[in-house]
Design goal:
The protein is α+β, with helices and mostly antiparallel strands. It contains one helix and five strands, in the order αβββββ. A hairpin with an 8-residue loop joins strand 3 and strand 4.
Amino acid sequence: MQTPVKLTLDGFYGRRAEFLRERTIKNEANGRVICRVCGTRIKILPAQIEIHEAGNGQCVGNGESFEAGVPYCPGCEELPAAEGCVHA
């Protein structure tokens, strides 16, 4: 999964839930969450997400942000960006 850019907050949380539901399984032997595709352990990148104003298509905000975990598979995906944005 990649860090959100120009998604709604609901869209980001929906994509994250879909990624975890569709792309991961729990390894019963050790309790770790692994990738369905390649079997690598899923990692979580703490990303800084800026909150931008919705409606105008521009990345403009008042400086508000929050940290969110972005799950990804280091075996078959690129490292997610450390920063992104949602439009609310």
